[in-house]
Amino acid sequence: RETVLLVEDHYETRLIYEKYLRSSPWNIASARSVREAESILRRITPVAIVLDIALDGEDAWDLLARLKSDPGTSRIPVIVATSVDDESKAAALGADAYLPKPVSGQTLREALRNFTPARGRIVLLVDDEEISRYLLKQAFTRDDVRFLEAANGVLGLQLARSERPDLVVMDLAMPEMTGFAAIDEMRADPELKNIPIIVATSAVLSKDENQKLSGQVLGILTKSKLARTDVAASLAALLASAGLSDLVGSPAAHSTGAS
User: Which of 121-125, 214-218, 241-245 has the lowest mean pLDDT?
Assistant: First the structure.
């Protein structure tokens, strides 16, 4: 895991940010003052800096200016997260992003993803059938997709909350928690509600079930078609409708049948 330097003098805020980034791709190194931040920067080169401006007894404008004028640190993204209302000054001094407090977990993680090395795409497969998860993985034609797998809705929600996948492919009939219940929980959670979901099911859905899923998911894949070589094209069409074509690349890249 890469290190993010958090320059924040408020103890409770540091705890909140650490909670936000728990089980994330980043470790946190914390500094309560400009002096502590400069000491840490002499030992490590973080992938990003989250900087409060109004520190105890000092402001950090000069630190921001020095970071961006020093060739040794100028390329480190600096995300200003502060209650100081001066976004134009932050931009003029070279800040890469400006986040007014209070900062939500989703906002902080998205800013870090935008300014830190690419982590690759993450797809979460939630299905109690191992063969279905295997066949679904074959439908993705990108080499940099990382798959997370869960055998039921409870585990799927845990992984969704800790890993923030780019896409969830969800079965409906599972032990412990059905896909319907897991989808309802995701859509009710402010931090998960915008994650795209595709349903993959062998069930013939009733009119009421289709209406329940309408507007909640990108679409539905029929499991009986997973072993066919055109499943990648079906998946690509669903993702293209949501502007997520980059998750699969070109479906023609290779066959998606089981090998």
Answer: 241-245
Phi then psi dihedrals of residue 225, to 5 deg: -100, 0
Per-residue b or e along 157-174, where b marks 16 or more CB atoms closer than 10 Å to that residue's CB: bebbbebbbbbbbbbbeb
Query: With a threshold of 0.90, does the pTM exceed it?
Result: no
The strand order across the sheet containing 121-126 reads 145-150, 121-126, 167-170, 197-201, 219-222
DSSP type of residue 177: S
Q: How far is CA 117 from CA 20, 26, 94, 112, 125, in A?
A: 19, 11, 19, 9, 24
- Please, are residues 26 and 47 in contact by the beta-carbon 8 Å criterion? yes
Alpha carbons 102 and 191: distance in angstroms, whole number: 15
Q: How many Cβ atoms from other residues are within 10 Å of residue 56's Cβ?
A: 9
Instruction: Give the C-alpha separation, 138 to 234, whole Å.
Output: 13
Instruction: Give the span between the Cα atoms of 91 and 80, in whole angstroms.
Output: 9
> Mind giving me the DSSP string for 66-116?
HHHHSTTTTTS-EEEEES---HHHHHHTT-SEEEESSPPHHHHHHHHHHHS
Distance CA 18, CA 56 (A): 20
